[in-house]
Design brief:
Length: 672
């Protein structure tokens, strides 16, 4: 990847295929292949997400499969491959937004099976909004600020590797093989530990630390760099190193199997809501901060619409977004099924409210979906630009959306409905909130994925508007099959503590932890059981973080304090925070070593890190097949008794070796 450094140390990307060169991007075979891969990724991601609360980035395995298949066709090219992965990645993205929210409707007893029509409508609304809302964000985040977008970068390098015969392909391949090998020992054979940790009690409190031995976290941290992770680290250390020990000393440890589990329970029950408070206020501030750039982009679009040839006449091929008039038409058009969805829900709820409040609730839900959908799409687009799609806190964004919508719903409906007495009305209001959160979660997830795809497109030289259009195709195709996938999965295993048939083994049920949390949260809201003090604490911390970041900006410091990354550090487990930091520290020492040597055209460290991300993502996608077939994530596990005590140590040694090798690849850059 050719890069040039400007005076502000940002990187201008020279696309692999120049703007002046025209190649077929959208083809019939590509669209068909992309849709088939989207369905495959939706199915695998649904199972894995409900089982282990984590989805696998779909762009990378989709790009690899696309290259393997299209290579046998005459006239295939890198831009066609890129378009296939853009469509295909929608499958994983849609699944991520759906599985963290809609299963809550089954868990809380509102649905007894997955409603096909409503699920399809929710996904299509969220998918289209996610794409439309991300269009004006591309120039700001992908082009102007040039955020790293780790998976997008890795996808771009994978696609280039299919065209490139130089040494960069070897670097990428070695990184992929080493990463996949370590991940397979961890999650496949399960003979190597996935984290190292040490927690201990001291007096009336407990403290310690942990490190996720995840290649993808470390590689993403390397690509991002240490400066961008300062706020992330502060959030993590403030929560796990200070706040939780103080909380435990005052309230004691909850009942749990061990100290790490007890501290994790404290974080989930209390400090996760602090992170949500920071996320809500920080997200709103981030949107306000972006408004100037968004308004400028909109003005430029309106000006261009008045010229002969429209917006495309004033921009090169690689800088052409969907014309803004179509964005407006898309948002206005999708508001119609949104209105019908909420009309149907409120009618079926049969709330004891007067006519004016009935129509106010429907209109408010529709408009608020668009407003909150845009805010959450912007939050997701920024977060994945720094830490990647797999670390996007879809559940945190959904919780913030639930709190915002439920607060207003409780205020407006509470005057005519006593939710503490009318439990049926409380259940239906909770379901309305979950469906609202489902729309927002899908929109946020699709927006983040779209930005990753656009980053990959920036690297290879794709046409942005074509990618944006094809992601809509992928989202709609996934929407049509996701209800079948959810229902089949539910009937095969059960979800949470809900089993569809008598005699089923509850131990085989998919835990669906995020959806269970959403159900508990929505029902608890109308029962008055939310930890408001923690949410308010988070809001206050967000204000302090914003003030600090603005001060650093005023002082023109090389270090910034992004409030959304601060929120992420509070929200995520401590092992994730340290896993990212390891990569950031490696990047710091590489930069220090190369301080007198300008970057070469190909950054070998970033190439190797991209290979690491690709390796774990591809392996994760492959492992979903035997896991789903045998209904267990332990199907490949090997029991070696004498290695059991040393699993964490072995994992740490192999992880350390990968870190050292990444450092060595990073310092291979030399003066031209």
């Amino acid at each position: 990847m050719k890069m040039a450094i400007d005076s502000h140390d940002s990187v201008r990307v020279e696309p692999f295929i120049p703007a002046s060169k025209i190649l077929p991007e959208i083809t019939v075979r590509g669209v068909i292949l992309g849709i088939l891969l989207a369905i495959l990724l939706a199915a695998s991601s649904t199972f894995i997400g409900l089982k282990i609360a984590r989805t696998i980035a779909g762009s990378i395995p989709a790009a690899l499969i696309s290259m393997m298949i299209l290579r046998s066709f005459r006239g295939s090219n890198i831009l066609e491959n890129n378009m296939v992965q853009t469509i295909a990645s929608a499958g994983e993205t849609v699944a991520a937004g759906v599985i963290f929210t809609l299963p809550a409707l089954v868990i809380m007893g509102y649905w007894h099976s997955f409603n096909y029509i409503q699920t399809v409508v929710i996904v299509i609304i969220g998918g289209v909004l996610g794409v439309m809302f991300s269009v004006p964000l591309r120039r700001s985040m992908v082009v102007k600020d040039n955020l790293p977008y780790p998976e997008g970068l890795a996808t771009g390098e994978i696609l280039k590797a299919g065209e490139d015969t130089k040494g960069s392909t070897k670097i990428l391949l070695v990184g992929s093989v080493l990463s996949a090998s370590l991940s397979f020992l961890q999650t496949g054979f399960k003979i190597v530990g996935e984290q190292v940790q040490y927690w201990t009690k001291m007096g009336s409190t407990a403290f310690g630390g942990s490190l996720m031995l995840s290649p993808v976290l470390m590689a993403a941290g390397y690509i991002v760099g240490i400066r961008a992770l300062v706020a992330f680290a502060v959030g993590g250390f403030l929560t796990w190193g200070i706040a939780i020990p103080i909380f435990v000393s005052m309230n004691g440890l909850p009942e749990a199997a061990d100290i790490p589990s007890a501290l994790a329970a404290v974080q989930k029950a209390n400090f996760r809501y602090v992170g949500v408070g920071v996320l809500a206020v920080g997200g709103l501030w981030s949107v306000i901060s972006l408004m100037k750039q968004i308004v400028m982009a909109i003005k430029a679009s309106f000006t261009a619409m008045q010229t002969k040839g429209g917006e495309f006449a004033l921009s090169i091929r690689t800088d052409r977004d969907l014309p803004f008039k179509y964005v407006i038409m898309g948002v206005v058009g999708i508001s119609i099924p949104t209105f019908i969805l909420f009309l149907t829900l409120v009618q079926s709820a049969n709330f004891a409210i007067d006519s004016s409040l009935f129509w106010f609730t429907i209109f408010f839900a529709t408009i608020f979906s668009l407003i909150v959908g845009f805010i959450c799409s912007a939050i997701a687009a920024y977060i994945v630009g720094i830490v990647g799609t797999t670390s996007l806190p879809v559940s945190g964004i959904s919780i913030a959306a639930i709190i915002a919508f439920a607060s207003i719903l409780l205020f407006t409906l509470g005057g005519q409905i006593d939710f503490h007495v009318n439990t049926d009305a409380a259940l239906k209001a909770s379901a309305l909130v979950i469906i609202f959160a489902g729309v927002v979660a899908v929109a946020a997830s699709v927006s983040g994925d779209n930005m990753q795809d656009l980053k990959a497109g920036q690297i290879v030289g794709a046409t942005p508007w074509k990618q944006q259009l094809m992601l809509v195709v992928g989202a709609v195709a996934s929407a049509l099959v996701i209800p079948f996938i959810l229902q089949t999965t539910f009937e095969a295993y059960g979800i949470g503590d809900v089993l569809p048939r008598p005699g089923m083994d509850p131990n085989q049920a998919l835990a669906a932890p995020q959806a269970t949390l959403m159900a508990t949260l929505a029902k608890g809201f109308f029962a008055g059981k939310l930890p408001w003090s923690m949410i308010q604490l988070g809001a206050g911390l967000a204000v302090l973080a914003i003030i600090l970041d603005e001060f650093l900006k005023y002082k023109k410091s090389s270090v910034r304090f992004p409030v959304l990354l601060f929120a992420l550090g509070i929200y995520l487990p401590f092992g994730y925070v340290t896993g990212f930091l390891v990569g950031g520290v490696i990047s710091y020492f590489v930069e220090k070593h190369l301080k007198d040597a300008p970057r070469t055209d190909t950054d070998t460290g970033v190439l190797f890190a991209s290979g690491i991300i690709a390796g774990e993502a591809i392996l994760g996608a492959i492992l979903t097949i035997p896991f789903a077939i045998y209904q267990s994530t332990d199907v490949l596990a090997i029991n070696i008794p004498f290695l059991k005590p040393y699993e964490s140590f072995l994992g740490f040694i192999l992880f350390l070796g990968l870190c050292i090798y990444l450092y060595q690849q990073g310092i291979r850059q030399r003066k031209k």
